[in-house]
Each structure stands twice: as C-alpha cells, then as structure tokens.
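Exercise: predict the structure of this protein bound to adenosine-5'-triphosphate.
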Amino acid sequence: MYNSFLIKYGEIGIKGDNRHIFEDALAKRIKTVLGRIEGEFTVRKTRGRIYVNCGGDWNYDETVTQLTHVFGVVGICPVMIYKTGDMEKLKADMVDYVSKEHAGEKATFKVKARRVDKTFPLTSMEVSAALGEAILQNFPDLKVDVHEPDILFDVEIREEVYIYSKIIPGPGGMPIGTAGRAMLLLSGGIDSPVAGWMVAKRGVTIDAVYFHAPPYTSERAKQKVVDLAAQLAKYTGPIRLHVVNFTDIQLYIYDECPHEELTIIMRRYMMRIAEHFAREEGDLGLVTGESIGQVASQTMQSLVVTDAAASLPVYRPLIGFDKNDIVDISRKIGTYETSILPYEDCCTIFVAKHPVTKPLLHIIERSEGKLKEKIDALVQEAIDTAELVIAK
Ligand code: ATP
Ligand code: MG
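Solution:
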C-alpha cells in the first residue's frame, strides 16, 4: 500500500557547510542496507530530505527493519504517493489514504499541507483547510485539534503528492563512517557489544579484537563473539575482527605474577595488543564495555592502571550505566540473546578468588617486570598468529 519512505534525520541537518557530507553518507548507507534485501529501491535527496522509493518485489517489514539499522535516521515515515491533479482529486486521495491508514480510529487530527510546487492553484493554508473538511465529512470519528492532534497528516504537493502520518523511530546518531575509526575490545559478554554500538552510533567505524584462550575457551565461545560482531555489523557494515590467541600470555602471567593481580595485568596486555591492531587499522581510540565499580577490574583505581598501558584514548561509553540500563540496550540492538549464552570467557578461567580492587601502578609494573624474559616474544607471537575474521 505504501510506495515510499521519507527519512527524517535530526542532528546531521545542523552541520552547516559539512551538511552534504553527512547527507551523502546517510544516503549511501541507506542504499547499502537496502541492497541486502529484495526490491528495487531508489534513494533521492531533495531539499534537505531523503526519500526512498520502493519498487519491484519489495517487502514492507524487511525494508523498515533495514532502515532502523541506519545510524543518522531519526524517523521513518511510510508515504503514499499520488499523482498530482486538481483539488477534487487531492481530496479523494486524502480520503483514500485515511481509509487505508486510519479506518475506524477515534482520534483528533490536523492537516499540514505544503505546496512545494508553487504552480498548484491554492495556497498551503487553503489546501490544509479543504483536506481537513474532506476528512471530517467522510470520517465522523475523526475530529480536528490544531494544537495537540493525535494524528498529523503531512501532505506535500511536489511533482507528485506525498501523504504520510506515521513515524517509525530510527536509532538516531550520525551516519557510520563520518567520524573516524575505533578498535572495540569485544568479549562475549553483554557490555562490550553495547559499548561498540554506542560509539558506532556517533558515526565511528568499528574494528574489533577478541582474546581467546584455547583449549581453555572453546570454538563455540569464539563463534559467539563472531556472531555478536555480525549482529553489530547490521548497523555498522562489515567488522574486521582480530581473534588473538592469548593462552600462552595468560599462562605465563599465571606462573610469574601474584594471582590477585592476574586480571589487571591481563587487561593491560589486552590493551597493548589491541593498540597494535588499532594502529594498523588507523583507529583513533580503543573502546571497552567497562562501567565504574562493576567488578574489581573496573574500579577507578583499576581503570587508572589499565589506561596507563595504552597510549590511544580509551573510550568507555558505558562508564556511568547500571547493568540493567546496559541490558535494555542490548535487547534493543539484538545482542542480548547471544551475549547470555553460557560459554566460557578467557578472563573468568584464570580469575583469582580475591582480585585486587585498588591496584597501584608502580606495584603492577613491578610484577610485570617478572615477565621480562619472555613476554615480548609471546606478545609478538600472539600478534603474528592472530586470525582476521570479517563479520557481516
Ligand atoms: P563484557 O560484558 O563486555 O564482557 P564484563 O562486564 O564482563 O564486560 P570484563 O570481563 O571486566 O567486564 O571486561 C571489561 C572489558 O574488557 C569488556 O567490556 C571488553 O571491552 C574487554 N574484554 C574483556 N575480555 C575480553 C576478551 N576476551 N576479548 C576482548 N575484550 C575483552
Ligand atoms: Mg566479560
């Protein structure tokens, strides 16, 4: 019944001279996601608006789902397009639209007509009034309320007539690829996929790194992380996921360092290796799923010590979030069901009963000194043997 969508975008509308860069990125991204499904779609940019016209063998639900995965999209308005004609035709089209879209509804409404085609003989105000009257005559359950209507009918008279009244919310944010790249430390947990999603939502392209410890962690645990990356990729496009074998480094730390410091020292080596791949990819920061106080390695003191291992900025978009807020987002973005699968994680296997909660940098550095003999070679080997998976 529809044949088009009007894409509403918020913030990118205010980017001044760079506006077209953001609009182009958005239009391009929309084309890309629609390329994943059946149908012939044309994406048109006109006067600060983006329209998606749909043809061929297209499916409404699939199309909406794809569009809700595009950062930068604030709202998706399903539009019915009618051929232009005189005022009588326009009224008939309006009645047709209402009968299809709002049949039997008891509600208040307002008509907001816009005459983009100035050759149309009536003014926008006159058109609005005439269409309002046509609706009142045909739908006794609909009443006018110009201040707070339940339904706002938008009518645009251009080369054709566009009528819409519904807005499906989009994710908001900025089009992917407009804000540089970052390296996400992606584990199989609930938090890090959400952290990556939040940074990506600001337009940042995401690369990822996952540390596993075979045979202590299984192939299924790795597949879970690949699946999480693939779920994120619905929003971000293909993700370059570096899978790093961390076993020997972990065993070496386990043998040489105090056990209550294992997690923090491990975390520091993760940062260093992540940073190596980040520099290779041209990433401008590291992203983690940490939030203050969640576990011992996420106290303020631990974060100081972790940060000291990295020279790139470390972004922690969940820093002030409670777990249930994070869970809500993970459900919304579709990573939750995968995240809660019970496979083992490399950090939990070597974890100490009583990890330090207030580590001091100089003490941790002194412990790391005990790794002098072999650690550089082990780090190098972990880098050299890393596997690159393109998750999409
Ligand atoms: P998550 O739910 O993301 O696993 P978490 O609450 O379990 O987080 P930690 O295990 O302390 O927290 O990990 C903190 C952060 O360190 C993670 O959010 C992630 O960014 C990174 N991280 C932890 N383990 C790994 C791993 N095996 N591979 C890659 N990154 C990891
Ligand atoms: Mg975890």
